[in-house]
Amino acid sequence: MIARFKMAGLHLLASILVVGLFLSIVYFIWYPYPYYIFHSTISATQLVVIVDLVLGPLLTFVVFNTVKPVKELKRDLAIIICIQISALLWGVHITHSVRPLFAVYFNGEIHSVTAVSFDESGFDKSIRTPGIFEHPQLVYIEPMENDQYRTSILTQLKGEEIGIVLQTKRYKEVGSYKQDMVSRSLSESQLKSNARVNEKLQIFLSSKGMTLADILLYPVYAGPYRGIVIVEKDSMRVIDVLDAYISNTSEYY
Fold first, then answer.
1. Beta 109-114 vs 100-106: how paired, if at all?
2. How would you class 61 by CB atoms within 10 Å of its CB: exposed for 0-12, middle for 13-18, buried for 19 or more?
3. For the segment 213-222, what is each residue's pLDDT rounded down to a tens digit?
4. What is the pLDDT of residues 62-84, one digit of tens each?
5. 107: domain range?
């Protein structure tokens, strides 16, 4: 019995290290805060944790028996490890394939574009795609004339063109367009018009020791998620999200 506890404990320790590394990559690199708020990874990470951290060591405790022939014991442990590796690889594949690559600014809004939606055709090579160990990147899409916008919408409806925020050929570095982004941030009056938004904003500002002049705020769209993303004005980095929503009135009709 002592041998079982010892082996299961060693297996648990090894599993904690592996799962800890996986979760660190997921939540600190692929989905850094606040991206994991609007891109849920719970289903994938839960399976990895359950199989690798709970089921694996538990099965080791059940099957480990020093009375067993060594060959049979090795086979049983190998099967358990294969199950754990399979669950881990599945979790890595799922979380990596749907991770956010770009936070795309367009027309006063931020849209999160995932790896599975990313289209490299026509992509401006001067903008580097985030590598496997890099955070999502904020990029800019230039405004469109009303007629041009309507034409684009019609071609999308016909299935001849993908959505504007997915058209990577339009992506630009934010540096040259910062003033436009500043001018299109949600205004103080817009923010104060919604009690829930204003309350959450005041809590954020108080906790960070910041003022409204330090940040830019935009509606964010990430799949079904709707909220208000906070961009630090100096660094132009996405730093937080308010779990509340205000539409930023479009100039297109």
1. antiparallel
2. middle
3. 999 999 999 9
4. 888 888 888 898 899 999 999 99
5. 100-126+135-242
